[in-house]
Amino acid sequence: MLKLHLRKISTMPTSSVNYPQEFIQFLNSSPTPYHVVHNMKKHLQDHGFQELDERESWHGNVKKNSKYFVTRNNSSIIAFVVGGQWAPGNPIAITGAHTDSPVLKIKPISKRSSEQYAQIGVECYGGGIWHSWFDADLSIAGRVLVNDKASGKIISKLVDLKKPLLKIPTLAIHLDRDVNQKFEFNKETQLLPIAGLVKKSTSQSCCADKTDLKESEFLSVKSIIERHHKDLLDLVAKDISIKDVTEIEDFELILYDHKPSCLGGLHDEFIFSGRLDNLTSCFTSMHALTEAADTNIQDETGIRLLACFDHEEVGSSSAQGADSNFLPNIMERLTSLKCDGTDKTNPLGRNYLLESSAKSFFMSSDVAHGIHPNYSSKYESQHKPQLGGGPVIKINANQRYMTNSPGLVLVKKLADEAKVPLQLFVVANNSPCGSTIGPILASKTGIRTLDLGNPVLSMHSIRETGGSDDLELQINLFRKFFEKYSELEQNIIV
């Protein structure tokens, strides 16, 4: 009944894009932040966006009525469209999300063995529901730094082994009769995946350390072969098409659920997948920007911009996190450019960055807590977001979320025009509250900010649940934000 009701109130024109199916493909091809940014770059390039480089000057290279993107660390990305009437000091409409999710990462020295099992040492990244990782079929993906002997350079390559390689087995109930009472485990010693059986003929040689190296063979850090299982390195080398594993200088590898993302429910109303937090917002922001990129852009006085950051799940304090200078630096560059070909000969004297910041707006988008039917007492009684019910405006008096009344008025006007239903959420007073990149960037830049996101269940589990209808609703809201913000901004005065 809920599904039919939601379809009835969703009256916007049906998109020619099957967003749920495309999102499933996006999820399945994006097991790590590096893959997320790679896939976003490809989508943007397919829609006419040009890549810029932070290492180079942008003067004379950024023009009105044009589309660009820039990456940092290949795990964070900012894309923007410059309006035809852009002038420094004008507003910038920004959506923000993050590319990372709670995962298990392979340790720098990962080689382990116990009771004739080859094991992989892993590190907990973020606040995952780690018991959900037990008994899942785990694969490995990430990026590898390779010594390209032909060019003499160290190059980065994406790797996705795309097969079930690891398992963290639970203990049989016969050996732990209390497991259903409370499942407790040691994250260092019992959250350790098995990768295979130790081959007795090679176990001695593959585990031995080199203790008699000559001076000419000195290595400041043990070789990659000494630190990791050779069989794992062979799989990585095969995936990135190199013949000799010694060409691998280092890597950053992440474990992920090998079971593919999929649609579920009686009417395909659900999305079952890992990483819904927060690839949902990366996907919706990306589509909204490319769909709004050419709409009335010749009359646009501002800039339409999306920013997706790494490391939100561990606090955002990194060179490519929301607490870095990535977005402020890009805004500083853009507000110093007239984008009319005169940048080099007519330097700007005023501090247009401060003017633009005061006029801009940041929609911080991260998934929200959908109502859980089996734990409804955990929710505030009047704030129970439904999956399929549209984007959730997140509010917190203690500033864990940045939503305030002027921001809410703005989003309501956009949602009314886009025919997008909105939901409201606050945590119960006796419940802890998470946070987002919203407070970080609001305090860092002074830009007006609102927190919202699509509702999900099992947030931070290896397998989360979202609503398939919510994708198009959020895309329509973000698209309207990009298209109308410069016009609306002048009419909401605080």
From TrEMBL:
List the source organism: Lachancea fermentati
Q: Does the keyword Protease apply?
A: yes
- Top enzyme class, one word, equals hydrolase
Q: Which reaction does it catalyse?
A: Release of an N-terminal aspartate or glutamate from a peptide, with a preference for aspartate
**Enzyme Commission number(s) from the entry:** 3.4.11.21
InterPro entries, alphabetized = Peptidase_M18, Peptidase_M18_dom2
Q: Which NCBIfam families match?
A: PRK02813.1
Q: What is this protein called?
A: aspartyl aminopeptidase
One annotated GO biological process: proteolysis
Q: What cofactor(s) does the depicted protein rely on?
A: Zn(2+)
